[in-house]
Fold this sequence. Notes:
Strand order of the largest sheet: 1-3-2
Helix content: 55-70%
CATH superfamily: MFS general substrate transporter like domains
Structural class: mainly alpha
CATH topology: Growth Hormone, Chain: A
Number of domains: 1
Largest sheet: 3 strands, mixed
Distance between the termini: 43 Å
CATH architecture: Up-down Bundle
Number of helices: 25
Strand content: under 5%
Number of strands: 7
Amino acid sequence: xxxxxxxxxxxxxxxxxxxxxxxxxxxxxxxxxxxxxxxxxxxxxxxxxxxxxxxxxxxxxxxxxxxxxxxxxxxxxxxxxxxxxxxxxxxxxxxxxxxxxxxxxxxxxxxxxxxxxxxxxxxxxxxxxxxxxxxxxxxxxxxxxxxxxxxxxxxxxxxxxxxxxxxxxxxxxxxxxxxxxxxxxxxxxxxxxxxxxxxxxxxxxxxxxxxxxxxxxxxxxxxxxxxxxxxxxxxxxxxxxxxxxxxxxxxxxxxxxxxxxxxxxxxxxxxxxxxxxxxxxxxxxxxxxxxxxxxxxxxxxxxxxxxxxxxxxxxxxxxxxxxxxxxxxxxxxxxxxxxxxxxxxxxxxxxxxxxxxxxxxxxxxxxxxxxxxxxxxxxxxxxxxxxxxxxxxxxxxxxxxxxxxxxxxxxxxxxxxxxxxxxxxxxxxxxxxxxxxxxxxxxxxxxxxxxxxxxxxxxxxxxxxxxxxxxxxxxxxxxxxxxxxxxxxxxxxxxxxxxxxxxxxxxxxxxxxxxxxxxxxxxxxxxxxxxxxxxxxxxxxxxxxxxxxxxxxxxxxxxxxxxxxxxxxxxxxxxxxxxxxxx
Length: 583
């Protein structure tokens, strides 16, 4: 019998007292006995919030994903299939000429021109999420914003397909059409990316820890933070399943042409758009919150002007100014301060994204400088998502549960710093591979020279292309720790009304990384690129160490920050039922 049940029965069993003090003494004594009973027997009904002792002693577990979360994951899978399937071909499409002297190409802008344009595309794709976030949080909501930007994305894909047809290339529309296409596609993908990641986590409605009993009779604590971690692990797994489009599109490029590969991407994206539209009745949708972004910037200005993080609070305003003219409450400022903590954590990410961006640009060029043995140089990128698809189930089903059973915490800050360190190993390995290329004939330090040409086509130095594989594996492994944890941190530390905006701030760090990579473009030539890889390895390693030293104290505050909005989070309901209730 629970303490609540005993308290309900107590009045019936207890005698009536005329003396009020005696009555109070008896009631207090019964409550003390109940508290002692619960303390000794650790009794908490299933579904109730655990006590502090239960949180410490019981194993923490994650819940399964709702069907609506899986639907959002499918949408992201289709979008990433499209994004990677087409952008993975951009380096060859831009760098190589149409005459086939260096393999199939289109625009003939050489290495630096190709790296510059592909890096700009990455930069643009991670600036535009701010636009999508503002539209979602203030005007349309996440779901409607995703649908609108899907249409924009499809227009850009259509331009890319049409301008990559041989006839269009022959009439000089290739470069202009490509630039227009990447601008429109970048706007579309930005509007989707800032909203799809928080939308999938919105599908999970539990905000507080709860007691549950497993099929084996073990009492456990359902931990929402672990479920959010699982959601983003699965979400990231779907992203990388989608990116396996690079198993197909490079061969379509090699044996047919670029435009059929781009057309395949367009068709797959249409599938994802249909899923998001036809599955609308299943989604949990948060309505937009009006002027929430402008309120946040107003509050930040008050903080800066007064040099006090609490200055925007109405309570502070009343105490110091005698009146408050603000439209928010104290809790909103506490949420905003938590979001600022996340933004401070994100400040280190640009260096990581510089490293990550190498796998779709300079790594592709490096692969082309080796003996491919019939393997397209842009096919090697697939070892990044393949490694992620292999490692995520191992970590989620084996490593993480074992660590939790052994009470070994593996908090986001620790995971992120480890991701930086593993990324540095990828760059160091890439530098070693580049050295091996320069040490091999027939061209040595000048890959793809005339001495390597056979029937007019230049081939790489005598180093097998497969030797590049560990570099992609290291990049993939680092993503599981750095990128997945970043998505998780952006969602859990954002105020409920600013999920998309904080997610866009996280994505913006990728744009800063692309800007740094753009500045490094002049070093993307032989033999300087080997030293660029070495420098990035050192930078990523040092950032990982400094990051951990700077933010490790946040690991201890993780549960408190995650629980901040548990009591005040808005109720969630499927879109259709909310619409009916409003009607």
